[in-house]
Amino acid sequence: MHLSTFIKSSCLAIFCCLLWACEKEQPAGEIHPLIQNAYQTREEAQAAVDVLYHLGYPSISLETDANEGLPLAWSVYLSGLIESEASEGYYPNLHQGKVSSPKVEELSKKLYTSYFDAIEQADTIIARINDSPSVNAQDRERLQGEAKFFRALNRFSLLRTFGAHPTARTSPTSETEATLYSLVVKDLQDAIARLPHKTFIENKSRVSAFIARALLAEVYMQMSCLPLRENKWVEAVSILRPILASGKYQLTGHGSSEALSAYNKLRQNPMAPEYLHTWQVKEGRSRAIFSFPSKAKGWGNVQTTVAFNAYQPSKLLQSIYSEEDIRAKDRQYFHSFFKVQEGNKTVFEVFDPAPYFWLTGEGEHLSAPKVNQLGAYRYSEILLMFAEALCQSEATVREEAVDALLDVQLRAMPHLNREEAKAELMALGIDAFLQKVWLERFRELVLEMKMGYDIARTGFYPSKVRGSAEIVFIPLSEAHSSSGGPLPRNLRLPLPLSPTP
Known about the structure:
mainly alpha, two-stranded antiparallel sheet, 17 helices, about 45% helix
C-alpha cells in the first residue's frame, strides 16, 4: 500500500515538472496549446463578431458595381420584373435567362465566396468563445447569439441563391436542402434565446432577438413552400407574434404633403421605428448612383461620374399599382423627372422610373447619403408575413390576417374605406386572399429585392389579364421573359464550378 502511494505521488510530481518545463520552454508571446483557442479579452471577441456586420450578406446587400449594378438584385433581374441600363456584366445574361454564362458564373462565385467568408468567421467565433474564460458568461451568450444569427443569415442566403450546397466551402458534395435548413433553424432558435428583445436603437445598433425572429419567420415560410413543402406555417405565426405584441414597432404615418409621406420619411431615415434593423457601411458607393439614368452624368446639379438606372421597374411591375396608390406617385419609391439648369434655362428632364428612395434631400437638392445605410425588415413586411402565415396555418381567411394586410394597404391607399375593404377580403377564398397578400408584397417591398424569391417559393408569377387592369398569378412554368423564352425553372443560380477556397 505504501509503495503504491509512493509511486502515485512520484508520477504526479514528474507530470507537474514536465508541464512546468513545457510552459517554461514555450516561446514568449505564444499561447499554451490548452488555451490557444481562447479570446484573451472581451474586446478581442467583440471585434471578431463586429466583422460579421460587414461580411457576407450585409456587404452584398449594400454593394454596388459602377459598371454592372447590384449583385443582390440578381433574382429580380432574372425574373424580368426589374430591368437595368447596364450593358455589360451579369445583367444582360440574367435578363435573357442565360444563367450558365461566364459573367453569371463570376457573380455566382462572388456570392458563394462572400457568404462562406461570413459562415467561416462565425464558425471560428462559435468554436472559440466557449473556451474564453476572460469573457464573462453574459457576453459569451450575447456574442454567440450574434454569431449564430449571421451564420444562419448567410446559410439562408446560400440556400435561396443556389439551393443545395456543401456545408464546407470546398467540399465536393452538397448536403440536402432539408439538412441545411435544419442548421439554419437551429442557429436562429439559439440566437433568439441568447439575444435581447430590444429595438435597433435600444440595442446600440446590434442585432437583436426581433430581427432573428423576422429572419426565422421568413425561413419557415420558405420551408413551407417550394421545394421542401414542409408545413411550418404555425411556427412562422408563433415566431412573429412577439414582434407584433411588443409594441416597439409601428407603421410610419404620413405628414401633411406627399413630400412628407411615410415613404419619404422612411427614405430620409433608415433608422426609423418601422425598421427592425439597419445595415451600415462607412465606405463604398451608395445605391444612390443608380437613382438617375446614364444621361444624368451630364447634368450639372447631379454631379456624378457614375450614373445609370440599375433598378427600373418593368411595365408589368408598374401596372400592379393603382393610380391612387401613393407608392406609385412620382418621388415616392421612384421618380421620372428632374429639374436641370442649362445656362439661363431650367429644363425638366424626363426618364424611365428610377429609384428615388435611395436618395436623400429634397427637390433639386438630392444627394447620396453620407453614410451608406439600408433599413432591413420594415414592420410592413412583418405584417405581410403574418397575414400570409396565419392564413396558411388556419387554412382559412381570418380577421386578424385581413387586418394585417389592410394596415399596409390603407397606408398606401388611404382613400379606401376600411370596413368595405375588409368585408371584400373576408369574403375571399384562401387562394384568392393569398394572391392579394403576394401582390401587396410586390407593391410594398419592391425595393427589398425579394420578388424573385417570392416567385421561386410560391411557384407563381404575376400576369396581366389581356384587355384588363387585373393582375393574376400564373404558374412559373407558363411565364416568359421579355425576350420570349421561358423563365428558369427555379429562379436560382448554378453552384460555382470551382468554388474559391
